[in-house]
Amino acid sequence: MPTLRESRRRLIRDTLIINASIIAFGFMFGLAARNAGYSPIEAMAMSTLLFAGASQFAAVGYVAAGLPWAPIVVLTLFLNARHVLYSAALAPRLRAISAPRRALMAHFLTDEAFALTAAHFHRLGRTDEGGYWIAALGGVFIPWNLSTLAGVLLGGAIPDPAKFGLDIVFPAAMGGLAVGLILGRREIVAACAGGLIGVAASLALGPGIGIMIGGLLGPLAGMAMPGPVAPDAGPGSPESELAGRTVDLDEAMTDLETIPDGAA
Amino acid sequence: MSTQLVLLALLMGLVTYPSRALPILAPGIEKLPPRALQYLRLVGPAVLASLAAANTLVLTSADGARSLHLVIAAAGVVVCLLLTAWRRNLLLGLIGGMALVAVARALGAG
User: How many independent structural domains does chain B possess?
Assistant: First the structure.
């Protein structure tokens, strides 16, 4: 079991590597928002008040297409429902922290913050609130907002982002993050089914609903597969690294799920 | 400078917050049946794959019509996935995918 100092050093290293993709996404969001007619204040409001990349990108498309606000808000609810998973997985570890601080921590819970924090808690075998803030603020919130600002202010200097392949950053990164979560057959089946169903449902019903349907039905296909959810991914094994970031997420979540009462 | 979408951002944030906060704030809500936990553990890969596939392959035109969109961007995403799976390195995957798309477009494809 590493010491707090050792685990935080690893967390900071992982966080710095994650920063690269966060900065790229944030810049792309700022650029997309600018192209959709957002003002800098509006783009920054999305990145601070909503702070959820996928739904921010989706909203750019919806706003550009003139969709009314009510369906945008409902679709956001669906799209971000997956955060329940992360919150539920971290909850046992955070019990000892006061409710107001937990309420504040919740706003900063993202895919990346969860992945970094769950791995850090797993390494330590206990909670480290400071580690959560390193991951959530240093890893995601601050670089996301600074790069959003850069994208919306400086985006006009890039004449044609698609020429440089920048338009694929978002879907490629989403897919890459999914790859990082795949440690066994069930995850592979869930991801493949989610992708196929997502495309089919998006064609029929629109991307906002279709993406959520893929995400909700894909796991059912995965659960139909026999065998364990994932094989063990031991520390240092090739499966436990993604861009230097620990993605032994399944192991971390198993650990978090089995915390006895009062152990956090 | 327009500020109209600030209210939309606030509304979107308000509907997102409960999914982030409720399990953390409501004691015992995380004690879910094993099957439910199994399901939730598979939601991440499924949602992310669904997002990636729909964003890459589904094109929505200005009039709202949707169509399957097989272009060089899809190849770029596939290259990214393969590189990420092979090297366990997302940044390398992104660079590889973007490079393919940039080179292909420079050559006049997609």
Answer: 1
Please indicate, yes or no, if residue A208 is contained in any of the structural domains.
Answer: no
Is residue B43 in some structural domain? yes
CA dihedral A99, A100, A106, A108 (to 10 degrees): -150
Q: What is the total count of domains within chain A?
A: 1
A69: nearest CB among B8, B42, B91: B8
Domain that holds residue B44: 1-52
Per-residue model confidence as pLDDT tens digits over B45-76: 888 888 889 889 998 887 778 999 888 999 99
Residue numbers of A between 210 and 229 with CB closer than 8 Å to B: 210-220, 222-223, 229
Task: Identify which of A226, A256, A170, A209 has the alpha carbon closest to the alpha carbon of residue B23.
Answer: A256
**Interchain pair B44, A85: CB under 8 A:** yes
Separation in Å, CA of A1 to nearest CA in chain B: 24
First to last CA, chain A: 16
Write out the residue range of the structural domain in which residue A146 sits: 4-168
pLDDT in tens, A67-126: 789 878 987 887 787 788 788 878 888 888 999 999 999 999 998 898 888 888 888 888
